[in-house]
Amino acid sequence: MTEEAQASSPGQGTYVYGIVRAGASLDPIDAVEDGLPEVRLVEAGDLAALVSDGPERASRELVLSHGRVLEAALESSPVLPLRFGMVVTDEDAVRDEILEAHHDELAQLLERFEGRVQLTLKVYYHEDVVVAEILASDENVARLREAIRGRPEDASRKERIALGERINAAIEKRRKRDGQEIMGRLRPLADAVTLEPPEDELMVAHAGFLLQRDRIQEFDTTLEDMAQEGAELLRFRLLGPMPAYNFVDFKEPAWG
Questions:
Q1: What is the H or E stretch that residue 121 is in?
Q2: Which of 134, 149, 185, 242 is 20 to 30 A from 75, comparing alpha carbons?
Q3: What are the two backbone dihedrals, phi and then psi, of residue 43, each rounded to the nearest 5 degrees?
Q4: How far apart are CA 120 and CA 195, in angstroms?
Q5: pLDDT in tens, 205-244
Q6: Is the per-residue pLDDT at 55 higher than 70?
Q7: What average pLDDT does the segment 79-100 reach?
């Protein structure tokens, strides 16, 4: 039986972060200096769950701790991350309802992620630069902008709306082209890739890459080259290494 973290009362239940191999070292978690919960292993055969006492309530600190625990654990074992907020009644439930009930599926996933990590890439346009390039390359857009320059907003409302729509359409067209180019250079370095929805109209690429650890340096070098080439136009943000959040297809029980 499980409960949502936000519904648990103080000290109630056992919070489950993710699945690792039995005997995985907790030293990397213990070494984190920013006050993580006291994490322990609950083992069943060759599998183990990373757990701590149930939280008093859901909080921003709990969300951050969830990720930090999993990322620290990744240093000593492949990690199968479970969703934030999973609380079971006790350690017996962890063994019975998770580790033993889903042993084969969990073991196969850990094997898949052995020696692999996720990197998440976000790429954005610098708005002023991409708009300036569109104005310089599209005569119709530039002409429309000149037509409303200096005119009162109320008197040029339709033209301003039309200008905004044309600029957005031009950004979308360019975003697809530039995004394909970025992915074309990085995709061959990964074992698998997930494409995520853009956060806004200036986001060029948002993707998760499942990489073998020994290819991280090659990925970083390739990305640094791309960032230097596009520094004026593009802003790159790389997150990780982290557990393979985007690639876990473990179907949690209905109560999860």
A1: strand 116-125
A2: 185
A3: -110, 150
A4: 10
A5: 999 999 999 999 999 999 999 999 999 999 999 999 999 9
A6: yes
A7: 91
pLDDT digits (tens, 9 = 90+) for 173-210: 999 999 999 999 999 999 999 999 999 999 999 999 99
Does the pLDDT value for residue 30 go beyond 70?
yes
**CA-CA distances (angstroms) from residue 226 to 105, 205, 206, 232?**
38, 13, 15, 11
**Which residues are registered as beta bridge partners of 86?**
4
Q: Is the sign of the CA dihedral 81, 256, 101, 29 positive or negative? A: positive
Please name the residue that has the structure tokens 């791309």: 226
CA angle, 9 as apex, 4 and 12 as ends, to 5°?
Answer: 85
Give dist(CA 238, CA 121) in Å, integer. Answer: 5
CA angle 170, 129, 137 (to 5 degrees): 45
Residue 71 tokens, joined: 């990322």
Write down the mean pLDDT value for the chain.
87
3-class secondary structure, 41: strand
CB 70 within 8 A of CB 17: yes
Helix (H, G, I), strand (E, B) or coil at 34: coil
pLDDT of 13 > 70? The answer is: yes
Taking every pair of C-alpha atoms in the chain, what is the biggest distance, in angstroms?
Answer: 75
- Domain spans of the chain, in order of start: 2-114, 117-246
Q: Which DSSP helix (H) or strand (E) runs through 29?
A: helix 27-30
Q: What is the CA radius of gyration of the chain?
A: 24
